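hey so i finally got around to running the thing on that chain from the lab meeting. sorry it took forever, my laptop kept dying and i had to restart like 3 times. anyway pasting the input first so we r on the same page abt which one it is
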Amino acid sequence: MANTSAPIGFKQFGHREGSPPTMGMEVRYISSAYTCPVFTGDVVLQSSATLPYIVSAGSTAGTGGVANAITTTVYGIFLGCEYYNTNVGRVTWSSYWPGSGATGDVKCYVCSDPEQLYIAQGSTGGVLGSSCIGLAVPMSLTGSSQGNTLSGQSVMSVQSSLVTGLSSNGQFLIVDLYSNTAPPGVNGTSTGTEGLQIVVLQPLNFIRRTITAAAGPPAALISS
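ok and heres what got predicted. didnt touch it at all, straight out
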């Protein structure tokens, strides 16, 4: 069955040391004035060198995002939030930040663990086959901040056509193909020329694991 485009963001798949997936999960904050939505599975950046705030990697210019998705060092993966919901008058938990409706800062959970594994779908324009295992791949900003408002799930993906052996060109390392573990017929497991393969990824250029100084300017220098 041919793959179809149905990006799932970056979903936790396991841990290289076999530990619970809560390892490496940190509390960070989003300013209540930050109007860009952030979904579970979105890649996020550290927005300040001194305060624990994060922003979506796909924010528009002027709100903390990046123009180059290839060499940017990121903070981690967004996994939900809680905040005082102005509309209902109490603290509520949400799988995504809608961009408004909070009184005070938004408490959010981010996985920055460099040993955490994820699955994500590739884009069209390139086939992610077994020859790509061990290579770097960059995130795609397409779909960032545009997730599913019913499930809260991200629709970010990786750029299949930009797989490279350069460790500075990408935030993730391809460590396996999802087709090696997923049931037959599941979307993303076809190795056909349509692309859109789902791959297993390990963090590469995250703040807690920066492979090389060439990975781009520290995300801590990006202001919110």
